[in-house]
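Anyone? Bumping this.
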Amino acid sequence: MVVTLLVIITITFVMMHAIPGGPFTREKQLPDAVLAALNAKYHLDDPLWKQYVDYVKGVLSFNLGPSFQRAGVTVNQLIKEGFPATLKIGLTSVLVIIVVGIPLGIVSALKQNKWQDGLVMFIATLGVTIPSFVMATGIIYIFSAKFNVLPSNGLTSWKHMIGPVIALSGFSLSFVARLTRSSMLEVLQQDYIRTARAKGLSNNKVIYKHALKNALIPVVTYLGPMIATLLTGSFVIEKVFAIPGMGKHFVESVGNRDYTVLMGITIFYALFLIVMVLLVDILYSFIDPRIKMED
Amino acid sequence: MTDKLLVVKDLKTSFFTHVGEVQAVRGVSFDLSVGEALGIVGESGSGKSVTSMSLMKLLQYPGKIKEGQVLFEGIDLVGKTEREMRKVRGNDIAMIFQDPMTSLNPVYTIGNQIIEAILEHQNVTKQQARQKAIKMLELVGIPSPESRLDNYPHEFSGGMRQRAMIAIALSCEPKLLIADEPTTALDVTIQAQILELMKDLKEKINTSIILITHDLGVVADLCSRIIVMYGGLIMEEGTANQIFYEPKHPYTIGLLKSIPKLHKKDKERLIPIDGTPPDLVLPPTGCPFYARCDFAMKICQEQQPPYFSAGPGHRSMCWRMHEDAPANERFSKVFNKGESHV
Amino acid sequence: MSEQVIKKELWDAIPKESKDKEILSRPSMTYWQDAWRRLKKNTLSMIGLAFIIFMVLTAIIGPYVIEHDYSTQQLTLANIPPRIDIYKVDDATYFYMHSEYKLFQVTADGELLDKIKETQNNMAERNRIYNIGGKEVVLDYKYGAMKAEDNPEGIKYKLLIDGEEAKVADRVQNKSYLFGTDALGRDMLSRVIYGARISLLIAFIATVVNFFIGVLYGGISGYFGGQVDNIMMRIVDIINVIPLLLYVILLSVIIGSGLKSIIIALGSVYWVGMARIVRGQVLSLKEQEYVLSARTLGASSMRIMIRHLIPNAMGPIIVSMTMMIPSAIFTEAFLSFIGLGVNAPLASWGTLANDALGGLRSYPYQLFYPSLAISLTMLAFNFLGDGLRDALDPRLRK
């Protein structure tokens, strides 16, 4: 895990320093003296290896450096500022996906080929193909502009959460519903379901005790990649809905080429993902006894 | 009339698929006494598994029992509701299946799966059920049952798993145990062990057994009576001795010929039966074995033969058994001389 | 026992050979023929395929056929929607009023003629006076600024033709600009068609680049196996910790925006997925080969086997490529949304959507058409990909 983190830091560092001209290159060239002063201030004139070591040291002590484009602001500050909003929407989305997506998939599987299945699968297919930003802009147009039932920017009330959460979770929710459905259908064909029926167990017990746990195994496996999807989705969602979260800061730094912020947020995301994937692995080992936890 | 545990009368089961009605079982009748072991032998597609699933009404859509009666202890199961059948399954009639690895739920312990069956049908506490489960594991010959109870299926070996399945099946002391190809997925040595175990348990608990298999060798030791099925119908029925030593049906003879024999001095070729099973969407009007039979006659193609008696408790569905059927050199040799096949 | 009399002939024996044995005859097809046959049966996939072909043809031929050019700006004709409300002055003269209170002369069936210059512009009294077709037309927009009690109906403006209040005569399709115009007066239809060119081009080229890199990487990894394979796959695993999209974004920041840069960025990242699949296929191919050599078949049989094995292996690779394309379209649009898209004057669907964001409330159509194009295209590729996956699955061969 540490190796992975180190590699990622290195990759990000190399990428950022591969940019020609350095972070202070603008269209209107700054006077040389100012440029030199800035470079000295931020240690950009140190040899590359030294900058690298300094940076790694910084990361390991949770110091991600200053923002180059916003004087006096550190990357840590920006993260602290933006993380809560992103987390709020992210967690809510995860909750919605699990609480809505999985039951929908189950219903679809149990009513295979009937109208409930058709309806759920139709909506789910739309959900996986319509891009999140189309969904986001669509929601804003229909519910904010036309019907004015939802606010369209900021995050000051629970009403503000509806649009962003729906747009962010749309894809993953549909994916989980489809996955649950196909997994459930496959599990219901298994021999051990036949055994369970042969024991005289009620239909509910067969489905919710025997089938469900097995069917959820692939779904839990998807949770890791899902978090990554939600994370990248947050960039666009936060921009479109004007949510003051980390994604918005990230997008802004892309716009004004604030390299430390970009690097810092990337590393933060990477760390976050590593931790999340670890948690999911632990959860997985609880569900499937055939998997043993190593390390 | 002796009290039979199970009387099956003219059972007909079909699968109503989009290609048509697949008549898997086309009129099967037999009975079973208390404490008796019956073997049902046939190749894949003969209808033997569908018959057993019909007995417990475990058929999944699109299968349905079309006609017939399944009288268990005098009461017809065919008319029972699903709810009523659940009380029967696992309780009065139990079933074990071919592959113990896939037939056990991988995410729950063996103990959980046995106790679940006990708690479903018997009014006992969890503690009592657990004690019972341990006794069952002991009964089927699993060492250190107390700790094994908390193991998962993948932590058992193949033979152990099948033993565990038997433990689950017998946990509520069913009157009838249906074993559908219980040894097919196991090594030969383990096969023998499991069959020994079943024989042993039959004596101990006095459970009736229906053993379903495609392998005649497997039924030899355990079953007192044997039914040979083909094309959804019973071709021949008799005691083990009658079937092995006095077979009166070309199909049975064919099956016996295809078993390798250890004791033969001269090398003999294994003679498989040519051809493939009949199409059950359009079943033949005559004898289902007609197309592959060495002794077929014109009448065999046109009319399905009735059952002819070949002795006490021994019947065969074959026109060659009719008194008017012409004699045939090969027939006499095979049919009447009673060549030893075991 | 039945008492029926059985006719004598019926006892005649029938030799085995004359009986109807089941002849399993099935026309033998090659793997590809069978796959195509299966694919054809899948209606959704066929619809998807048809749509893709339509879109590609439109992208290639469209710009030559459409009357307007994608980059010509006409600021006077900015932000005109595809369906316009027209007012009638007389049988020969109609006009259309733009939401920014500009008037245009139009024909009865919706063709835009020209902007009408006002004869008087009274900003203080909040009205404008025009001379259209010999009549005096007054646009009175003081209502928008009135208080609620003075303006119970909540109207924003009134149009008077020769003193009489004018009502909308009809809502017609804008014949000059079928999809309307954007903020700089450019024709939306030609921009969407041109956007198809750009978006599809980026998607196809990026996918092909990813294919080659992935095949190379995965092929080497799978072929050599052992330590080489271990290390190469570990590298892929580490790369996969960060969502690939992030890499694309970072790369785009480094390389800069623009058509070439996007293609390079996309092509440098998504090959990891392809590499994994190719490696898996190569590994299973190797296994078959060992089995073959163990059976010591002649060289010619080996060639035949490979003719069967390689098509099998190609299946998942083809499906993967088909699914990469909508992924690339999505990513490109995503990048445009963050401001990393192609540069003006080039237009991709993504940049069109991004441009439309600002005027979303007033001019939703500007967002609608590119979004529709993106969604439908992605849907079509997804249907096709699903169908291909089923059709190329050797286990489903009938």
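Late reply, but here is one note on the structure posted above: Residues 11 and 68 of chain B are 4 Å apart (CA to CA).
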